[in-house]
Amino acid sequence: MTVAYNPKLPKGLKFYFDVNNPKCIANPGSTTIASGSGSTKLNCLVSSLQLQANDNTNTNMTFVEDNGSYCYNQVSTNGGEPGWTSTTNLTRVDSYTFIGWYKYQYGASYQRAENIYGGGFGSRTSFYLSPSGTSSSHGYLRYSDAGGDNSYSRTANYGANDGEWHMFATTDTGGDGNQTTKLYIDGDLEHTNSSNASHDTPDGEGQVVWGSWNGTYGNFGGKTNCFMYFERVLSDAEIKDVYNSLKGRFA
Predict the structure, then answer these.
(1) Rg of the Cα trace of the chain?
(2) If we measure between CA atoms, which residue out of 1, 3, 63, 59 comes closest to residue 35?
(3) Judging by DSSP bridges, how do beta strands 208-210 and 61-66 pair with one another?
């Protein structure tokens, strides 16, 4: 029997998905994930937002126990397009924070042969887990409203792709021509980067994706949970607090 964890999280939380919590998915241990018209859905713990399963083979998405707690497990190398996409869009803002926990490895035995992503706003904002699926580098990618034009990213080998659990976090602030992104691994600030003056920060509405770049590309292989988004920039101390509040269940 597992325990539903309810960490104390900072203010500004817009969505939070934790498959170990029965309010997110009632019976993960006995749920067979299905996509299509009968798609399995995850309920956000702080709003009415839902994520629906996408997998055209219905074989690559499962809920599994890890360290006594349920998490989401995704296989990307068998084909299909596994992952989660929101049933409704969210209005994007210039200042925000994404956080997610991932347990994965890079290389052809674990990832498909394409750029591998962890989730964010579809085709615009994502954790970047492995370029080409074979690179040890990881970090984030930020597209503009013009797509790849004037995009920017940061990847390096921070040691978070070793098959153990690690918390990825990014904060963004600024706006058009002045967007700044900070990358954190396990609660520690690793890098700060800024857009060029021509970067058109995405606005309007965006679809939330978890486990890929846009639902049909960059689908990662591994385990993940506690995917959350704040409509403000968390401080270094707040991000460290989130890490400390959850690390016990992923040890």
Answers:
(1) 17
(2) 59
(3) unpaired
CA distance 116 to 128: 6
All domains in the chain, ordered by first residue: 13-250 (2.60.120.200)
The single-letter code of the amino acid at 137 is S
Q: Report the 3 state secondary structure along 171-207.
A: EEECCCCCCEEEEEECCEEEEEEECCCCCCCCCCEEC
Rounded-to-integer distance, Cα 216 and Cα 81, Å: 5
What are the Cα distances from residue 148, in Å, to 11, 140, 198, 201, 238? Answer: 32, 14, 12, 12, 31
pTM of the model: 0.97
What's the pLDDT at 146? Answer: 87
pLDDT tens digits for 40-75? 999 999 999 999 999 999 999 999 999 999 999 999
Ranges of the chain with pLDDT below 50: 1-4
Burial class (CB in 10 A: 0-12, 13-18, 19+), 91: exposed
Q: How many residues does the chain have?
A: 251
Q: Is 36 exposed, middle or buried (0-12, 13-18, 19+ CB in 10 A)?
A: exposed
Q: Which pLDDT score is estimated for 7?
A: 82
